């Protein structure tokens, strides 16, 4: 195999919003395989909000993405050549191949490459509803919010890959589910396609009072659980409508990703409402993945868990698609299709 | 019995800091007992920060203190007359008798009056280390922070009745314990008498950077657990030094009791540090009281749990003592001695 591998490297760290100059497209010949290695051709590259954090070198839970190396990222593809007895050409696999067309993988390392069955679940879904975003939603909902039937659960970024899963899993548990998303198209899709009870277009409610009022109207019995992807004013507004013993699963705070201040205005509500606010990173809870993937895979295979995808074409378009994701231009899972 | 009962009523609700005019001292004859009732003469009245919240009629977890009625409050005293078979004159009891010298108690109601044994534990301690403040500290530490030996626990209002218990219970569990208190006398007492490893005088560190630096110096391995009685800048400073998976038990936020804004500046740290922040009210966890009181009572009776008391004399001085408590003038448990 002597294919040319097109790769995207992190060229520099953004100040504020990331831009095209932070990335660099390079072409590298694919190296011959050593024993134990597998060559994977990527069909889909996953784009996720967490990548914005890795581009910075601020102290965080994960090491920053090194400069001049292939951007980190989840990938789904097909084995095209194997020197590993556990994999053969034609196997469909998911891994963390990064922003490139091919990856040479030391497949003996536990967990770096998983074979997946595409009989009933499309390959791309393993990067979304039956992958990291789905498990993220499952963990925050099931393990932190732990909703009871009849409770009200609010989900921000409801039209995103994570939020869509959260809402449908909560509906399956007998909850009233209210999404928050940007724009009428997303809101319509969240209600009509994903089956949320209501969806609030945050662009229509631009201050705390208005958003809090919209939440009051949509959640007449108050809010028992909140899955947080955004932060800032939305978090304040939800807290004003929280019931006693409400739980907030903090998954993301995209409102502050470019360094904007996003203070929590009334932390005393955590006390007066006896709330629990808990942050989590799904990769630290690998023990929960099998149970989560089993439920998510079954729901997708039987058509009970819906999801949307926004697909960019070709590795060169990955940065633009990523900027769009950060601005909420996608609906559902943002992918880059490479084959 | 035809004693005169001196009582303090809430006369008006404070705007900002409470003042003497919010209270009114009245004299009322003690009514004759009906069947099942007990007349208790109060020896000690407990003053606690939560009372400030009850003086306001803002939405909160508890109903506001009604105007023109006896201020709510825990009391310890002695039965002087009984028409209830379970109590006799001379019994030492604790209850919620309020700011008055005597209380007529319908003692058949479960939980309104408890007999206590003063052989090894002084009566006043049942309002402090072996009472609501002690159990409050126990619950937040044991059930929310759940510290492991070797971890670092920080306690604000460390010289108060709750904070003092938290720190000593954490020391007994093998933790490094750092208090935060106001002034050199309190800090010395917290270290020398209560056995904390260090105590930071917050008056010496008046901005976020300085306080965060002081915490860094006192907690070289970071902060794993924080017992919050204050809020505001202290909470921000602790969060900047929190370790991954740190737990914050929110018990009080006295910095905001008079309506001052106390935003949490960097809520995104809850996410990046995968923290848990949980508010609680100890009266909602009655199932935990027996275990807590058993440990606290044993520790006090054997001299292993130290506590301080600040004692005002006479019912007429209760309001001034309460204002002092809100300003941190007390050390340890603030009581009013009535007999």
Automatic annotation (TrEMBL), chains A, B:
Domain of life from the UniProt record: Bacteria
- The portions of this protein that span the membrane are none
Which Gene3D superfamilies does the entry link to? Medium-chain alcohol dehydrogenases, catalytic domain, NAD(P)-binding Rossmann-like Domain
In this chain the Enoyl reductase (ER) domain maps to 19-336
| Keyword vocabulary terms for this entry | Oxidoreductase
Q: Name one Pfam family in it.
A: ADH_N_2
GO molecular function, a single term: oxidoreductase activity, acting on the CH-CH group of donors, NAD or NADP as acceptor
**SMART domains given in the database record:** PKS_ER
Tell me if Oxidoreductase is a UniProt keyword of this record: yes
What PANTHER family would the database entry show?
PROSTAGLANDIN REDUCTASE, PROSTAGLANDIN REDUCTASE 1
Q: What is this protein called?
A: NADP-dependent oxidoreductase
Q: Which organism is it from?
A: Scleromatobacter humisilvae
Lineage at the top is:
Bacteria, Pseudomonadati, Pseudomonadota, Betaproteobacteria, Burkholderiales
